[in-house]
Amino acid sequence: MNLTYGFQLQGQHQEQSVGLYAIGHETQTEISYRWDGKHRSDQHCFVFQYTLSGSGAIKIADQIYHLTKNQAFWIEVPSDHCYYLPKDSNHWEFLYITLFGDTVHQIYQQLTQTHGHILTYAEQSPVIQLIQSTLNEVNQNKITNSYQASARSYQFLMTLLENSSEEQSINKKIPSSINHVLKFINDHFNQDISLDDCVKQSKLSKYYFTRQFSRYVGMTPIQYLSHIRIQKAIELLLNDSDPIEDVAKKVGFQNGNYFAKVFKKHTGKSPRSYRNARSSMPVDHWFIN
């Protein structure tokens, strides 16, 4: 049985950062299944669709890609593309998540320029498991406003950045020195970490380390640290009632004002506004197809 959820949630922060437009788990068996990226009524958005079984196809400009188990596409709507069930396939089972917002646009451009539109992930990878867990939460009515939806969507984007494509690990294996720093940041994000601390962990020169880190991770060490801290802060704001100053310290910011500035840059809202609005944010329309 197909599970498809669409969202129309109030909150200007979604356009400024990231919003959840749709999520679902479908199995298509009819040749009539076809989405033309130049002739859709959807708002400006970005579709990530992952193949669980069977096969599908997507045409991007003049190039056709055949998608089988563990392959995903990420595409902008509207754009010159069309995805469909090909004649030689008897079914296409997939998960998908559709997002919108300025932050999505930036990360989409960054990752597609580096990895292209076709990505490969194991079904047990963090990226795919996050889609599945978000779908389960939606199905259980645990996501009820735009702030919760944006938090999950932002977490998905950060997981994409962190994992990139598992295909990357074959073609461009991350050096052990960079992996060591990634683990160091994830384990110690709540401490006062500087670029020099990261360089020391890598045992490389500062110049070579910063170039290598940006090449393999897609952002600078300090940008990565900020992303991890904001992701953790969102989880605390959604689930705890600690004072904002305490949240800031728990995720590694010594100054609450600076934390608020960085948080607003990433999410479009101050931490206090985010927390105050999350439980009362009205839902315009919630539908299940």
TrEMBL record:
This protein's UniProt keywords: DNA-binding, Transcription, Transcription regulation
Top-rank taxon: Bacteria
Keyword Glycoprotein assigned: no
GO molecular function: DNA-binding transcription factor activity; sequence-specific DNA binding
A Pfam match: AraC_binding
Electron transport recorded as keyword: no
HTH araC/xylS-type domain residues: 179-277
Protein name: Putative AraC family transcriptional regulator
